[in-house]
Write a structure and sequence with these properties.
The structure holds two protein chains of two kinds. By secondary structure, chain A is mainly alpha-helical. Helix content of chain A is about 65%, strand content about 0%. Chain A starts with a helix and ends with a helix. In chain B, α6 runs parallel beside α8, α8 packs parallel to α10 and α9 packs antiparallel against α10. Classes of the chains: A mainly alpha, B mainly alpha.
């Protein structure tokens, strides 16, 4: 129901029109239609089919050789939840465009299908031929943070030794993605996983606001309860702290039967109340 | 004391990095000096969230003397600062902010503004209100909060409305027990229907609180510093709001058509 009301808000397009535009001549309309289908969660089978087809588009190229339509299509497919997109997204991990690979890794994470793990590991090892680095500095060879986060969410335990090597990467954002994945992959042993959670908590004090924001998102994604106070005290926007704490709260709510509340849930809500 | 204040203010003005600014604003806020108010207010506009958090905390601690400055800043339409200003007004709970909060909670386009205002509506300093204004003020706050809890698209704004309603339910427990029941039935709906689990969780906590709390607790007994002129303005504003609401006629009311005819008549000019 929510989808329908959102669609009505945007009187520019209908589902049929967006699907038609995506297959049309106008490149601008095609890129917009791919974004729009994802934004409004249009999960009709024909929408997913045309988005999968768009992953092989060759018409829309940037001067640097990027594929804007493929990027948008890859992002949209993750939001739509159709598992039939998995093989095509795995294929997109071979795309020369860095941002297509990044979007594909993120969408495969969202779709939760484990069949992509071997290819993600190869990509993390930079063993996929034909892939070009990011067009701007620091010109990373691969979207490591997106790959690490996907491997963590998908429970790729075999990748632990490889992921560990990224804990010391020269880019802090990538270190944090590795810590986040390690937390998820070692969750059976609390004292081990907590050391990765605590590493993220320390990163909340990083002098760079952009990085503090990224770490708030990481902690929210893993729902790391011991981070609650540190999150609420981070020097960043209250909106982002609230979203991060929401991640902690929802993990707590899963551990009790409604309407019972764990002490952790109550603690997180008290911190959230103070940030409103 | 004046020298000390000057030094702290100069540190804010001279700060040449975002971290230094943050530190300087924090030190100024912690000094709890009324002379710091204009500088704290100015730092809400610097687009430095760390500094703004510290400034808002400082302004809330200073309380009532900061209110006229905050209301004046709102009039200047500085969008960067507006959310922080509403947050400070909400935290102070001064009745002069009530009308602003009512409008902001229900109609502001920025979710951070609606969020701060919704919480603030529940936490007004109700004990300052004269009897003849209390009922209409609390009724308006409750209407606004019930509307936000039901209608707002953003989970965090609905979450905030639940917090506001919990505080309001405490405030009206003795005077208007039927309002408290109305709030509780709203909670019962949200506890199973709200699409966000975080909002449902907050509703469960509010329900537990209302079941447990038999005595409404008064937080402070500090007397109202507001003048009769202030109350006059608040009253006019509230009655003005009520009046506007009455103009919304029910579907099928023949007066709607009369107004429609007037509205589309080219001679009236403002269609």
């Amino acid at each position: 129901m929510d989808n329908e009301s959102s669609i009505r808000d945007d009187n520019q397009l209908t589902v049929e029109q967006a699907i038609a535009n995506l297959q049309g001549e106008d490149l601008g309309l095609r890129v917009y239609a791919a974004w729009w289908l994802g934004r409004f969660r249009v999960d009709a089978p024909e929408a997913i089919d045309v988005l999968i087809a768009a992953l092989e588009d060759d018409d829309d190229r940037t001067n640097a050789g990027g594929y804007p339509l493929r990027r948008n299509a890859a992002r949209a497919l993750g939001k739509l939840g159709g598992k039939q997109a998995v093989p095509a997204l795995i294929k997109s991990l071979e795309c020369s465009d860095f941002y297509v690979r990044e979007a594909a890794a993120q969408s495969l994470e969202m779709l939760g299908d484990l069949s992509c793990i071997p290819r993600l590991i190869e990509l993390l090892n930079n063993q996929v031929p034909g892939t070009l680095p990011a067009p701007e500095p620091p010109q990373l060879t691969q979207p490591f943070d997106a790959i690490l986060e996907a491997l963590g969410t998908l429970g790729a335990i075999d990748a632990i030794p490889l992921i560990e090597t990224f804990l010391d990467h020269f880019i802090p954002r990538i270190q944090y993605a590795a810590a986040r994945a390690m937390y998820q992959l070692t969750s059976q042993a609390t004292e081990i996983s907590n050391q990765y959670g605590d590493r993220l908590v320390q990163a909340l004090a990083h002098p760079d606001l952009q990085l503090r924001r990224a770490v708030l998102a990481d902690l929210g994604a893993i729902g790391y309860l011991p981070a609650a106070e540190a999150i609420s005290e981070t020097l960043a926007e209250n909106s982002l702290k609230l979203i991060s704490l929401k991640g902690l709260l929802e993990k707590q709510l899963l551990q009790t039967t409604p309407p019972d509340l764990s002490p952790g849930a109550i603690k997180v809500m008290k911190l959230m109340d103070a940030l409103l | 004391m004046a020298d000390y204040l000057d030094t702290l203010i100069r540190a804010v003005e001279d700060a040449d990095s975002s971290l230094l600014l943050q530190e300087a604003v924090k030190n100024l806020a912690e000094a709890r000096l009324e002379g710091a108010i204009p500088t704290l207010i100015a730092s809400l506009s610097y687009n430095n969230p760390g500094a703004a958090v510290a400034a808002v905390d400082g302004l809330i601690q200073l309380g009532e003397p900061a209110v006229p400055f905050l209301l004046q800043l709102l009039d200047n339409h500085n969008y960067t600062a507006r959310a922080w200003t509403i947050r400070a007004l909400a935290g102070i709970g001064d009745p002069r902010g009530l009308l602003t909060l009512l409008g902001a909670a229900t109609a502001d386009f920025a979710l951070s503004v609606r969020r701060a205002a919704a919480r603030g509506l529940g936490m007004m300093k109700w004990h300052w209100f004269p009897d003849e204004l209390l009922e209409i003020a609390q009724a308006e706050a409750m209407d606004a909060l019930l509307f936000v809890a039901q209608e707002d698209d953003e989970w965090v704004v609905r979450y905030s409305a639940v917090v506001g309603l919990q505080f309001l339910a405490d405030a009206v427990a003795v005077t208007y027990p039927e309002w408290r029941s109305q709030i509780q039935s709203q909670f019962e709906k949200m506890a199973v229907k709200d699409e966000s689990w975080a909002v449902r969780g907050r509703v469960w906590m509010a329900q537990q609180h209302l079941q447990a709390a038999t005595q409404p607790q008064t937080i402070d007994n500090q007397p109202s510093p507001l003048s009769s002129m202030d109350w006059q303005r608040i009253m006019e504003g509230l009655y003005g709001r009520k009046g506007q609401e009455r103009e919304v006629l029910a579907e099928g009311d023949p007066r709607r058509y009369r107004e429609l005819v007037v509205a589309i008549d080219p001679k009236t000019g403002d269609a």
